[in-house]
Amino acid sequence: MILLSTGNQTIKIDAGELIGYTVDGHEYIHQKGSPGWRNSDTEMFPIIGPTEMADFKVKTPRGTAIQDQHGLLRELEYELVQHSDHHAVFQKKYLANTPVKNSKFPDKSSVNELFWPYSFTFVKQFELQENGLKITFKVSGETGMPFMLGYHPAFKLHTRKPIIEIDERNIDLAQVLEVGGRALQVENCETLILKDAMRLKIKTQGFGNFMLWTEVPTMICIEPITFYPYAVEQHNLNKGFMVLNEKEVNFVVRIMPF
Fold it and tell me: What start and end residues bound the annotated signal peptide (predicted)?
């Protein structure tokens, strides 16, 4: 467990997972063990979305990869690279075509092992700033590697009627619940506001879209994504890929109470 703090803000990190963010004693993060989801945050990489209907196969320029829902990154363990009182850096490395055990097998999946035909390094960096929490994701790897990226944090809800404000548009919790497991698509959006007992601005860089998901009234996942996976059939997930043409590409999520 790592604690970072500055001023009236404190975050808790467990093996790279953000499990708490409090400001003046107000908890913004869904607590593990509470109804709704077994995690507090995770990353979706190198694909977003389910693959079961495509027999867990994803097309790449180097042939077919075997991926379960939201990719194999979540099956790898973070290594702590460095940390201070208000800063922490975690890293995952993957060697191309290395088999990775699928934790969903056999109860929730029929595929035992996953693999990706490209090597990559994935860095997750937390930094507490005066105006909130900045999380930076750094993707580096082989030139030409296709990928999607999604960040999947869950926020604790304290009221019965929270609102997601996007420009002049409001989305209420009932709309998110109605969509169910597919998650509600929010296109071409980099900033939104969660209006609950306290207000929270979520501002992103590099993702371009969000999706909203929950199945209970006590939490909501507000997920920055590079691609909405239900826009295509599962066997065409490759249509949503970005391509790594630089040595490193950065994505930023800022979580700012106000």
Answer: none
The CATH number of the domain where 181 resides is what? 2.70.98.10
Please, what is the average pLDDT of the chain?
97
Which residues 6+ apart lie within 8 Å of 23 measured at CB? 8, 9, 198, 257
What's the token pair of residue 240? 């949503």
Write down the pTM of the prediction.
0.97
Bridge partner residues of 201 (DSSP): 193, 256
The count of structural domains within the chain is 1
**For residue 49, which of 183, 189, 143, 176 has the smallest C-alpha distance?**
183
Which tens digit of pLDDT belongs to each residue from 114-150? 999 999 999 999 999 999 999 999 999 999 999 999 9
The three-class DSSP label of residue 55 is coil
- The tokens for 181 are 């497991």
- Residue 138 to residue 125: CA distance in whole angstroms: 8
Q: Is 233 helix (H, G, I), strand (E, B) or coil?
A: coil
Phi, psi of 249 (to 5 degrees): -125, 140
Range of the domain at 60: 2-257
